[in-house]
Amino acid sequence: MRLRTLRVLGALCATLLVMTGCASSGGDPLAQPSEAGGATAGASDGASEGGGEPITVGSVDFNENVILAHIYAGALESEGMTATVEERLGNREAVVPLIERGDINVLPEYSGALLAFLAEGEIEETDPQVVVDQLREQTDGEDYTVLEASEAQDVDVLVVTRETAEANDLQVVSDLEGVADQLVIGGPAELETRPNGLPGYEREYGLQFAEFRTTDAAGPVTIESLLNGDIDVARLFSTQAIIEAEDLVVLEEDVPLQLPQQVIPLVSTSVEDQVAETLNRVSSELTTEQLTAMNSAFENDKEDATDIAEEWLADHGF
After folding, report:
1. Distance (Å, whole) CA 205 – CA 132
2. What is the distance between the alpha carbons of residues 123 and 5, in angstroms, rounded to a whole number?
3. What are phi and psi of 250, to 5 degrees?
4. Which of 189, 156, 196 is CA-nearest to residue 16?
5. Nearest to 205, CA basis, from 233, 229, 231, 230
6. What is the Cα–Cα distance from 175 to 195, expressed in whole angstroms?
7. Separation CA 50–CA 32 (nearest Å)
8. Which of 133, 218, 292, 313 is the most buried (most CB within 10 A)?
9. Architecture of the domain whose range is 156-251
10. Residues 6+ apart with CB under 8 A from 86
11. Would you call 213 helix, strand, or coil by DSSP?
12. So what CATH class is 3-153+259-315?
């Protein structure tokens, strides 16, 4: 993405964040350290204990990303650095420009989605390593870069209730052909416009839904809307514990559309040397199964994101 474009986006997003209370925080979340940092993110003035500048880890507005932000911050703290967490700063369109502006230094990201965003177009590559290689090309010369990708993946999926699946004989995405025009789909606003959202389902599968309803990014609004019948199809994330807990049916892709989505740290180049070794170690330890388990602890067991992060860090020697 061109720096001029990012700067314009950054300025617009900063204005929107202030005007909207920054994801319900009651004020600009970048104005002061987040209280949500807890034991995994300590506030401090001046340089970090372990050398270098204090690090601000941001997250986009969904649960798993918040947990990952606290894991990143806690890992950096364990190495003597000072790290604070700023939670739920919005969607990718709002948060990535904050890296370029220097308002945050680290962001847990997902390889395919980030590549599609930065490339400003359709990405057809489905090989995970090629996606990461192309991501490195996209960030070359920018004020941010990506570190090592983890094995852990969290892919966008279409989900229906067991009742809807049985009533319409739905197992794979192409089974929606012929019934999509009778079904309401729900998800975040960007689902309506992103290449691998509704435009992609129409392009690759010929699907045109009866209606699109804006809910949230696989959060409680989307889930409640699906369970109470306000929507028939929901865009969720593959690692969400609610899928098994509510016996929901994931419609498997029989035509490739969604990109590989490995968890990968996006960092400011100004702190790359300071944080790379620690965050690459996090990536080497993180698995999809662990993501699913941590999501379950948050969603089903109502554990706090900082506690979940602390447990993961302790289990992996941080």
Report:
1. 26
2. 20
3. -85, 125
4. 189
5. 233
6. 21
7. 22
8. 218
9. 3-Layer(aba) Sandwich (3.40)
10. 29, 30, 33, 34, 56, 57, 58, 59, 104
11. strand
12. alpha beta
pTM comes to 0.74
136: exposed, middle or buried (C-beta count within 10 Å: 0-12, 13-18, 19+)? exposed
> Measured in Å, how far apart are the chain's first and last C-alpha atoms?
35
Sheet of strand 83-86: strand arrangement: 83-86, 55-58, 106-110, 263-268, 144-146
In the DSSP assignment, the letter for residue 51 is S
Other Cβ atoms closer than 10 A to 141: 9
* Tens digit of each residue's pLDDT (9 = 90 or more) over 25-56: 333 333 333 333 333 444 334 444 455 789 99
User: Which of 19-28, 43-52, 245-254 holds the top average pLDDT?
Assistant: 245-254
Q: Which two tokens stand for residue 64?
A: 């798993």
CA distance linking residue 71 with residue 287, whole number of Å? 13
Q: Which amino acid is at 46?
A: G
Which tokens go with 67? Answer: 């947990």
Q: Which of 305, 284, 275 is nearest to 105 (CA)?
A: 275
The pLDDT tens digits of the residues spanning 181-237 come to 999 999 999 899 888 899 999 999 999 999 999 999 888 999 999 999 999 999 999
The amino acid sitting at 195 is: P
For 66, the token pair is 């918040």
Mean pLDDT of the residues in the chain:
85
Q: Structure tokens of 263?
A: 């968890």
Dihedral sign from CA coordinates of 30, 31, 36, 39: positive
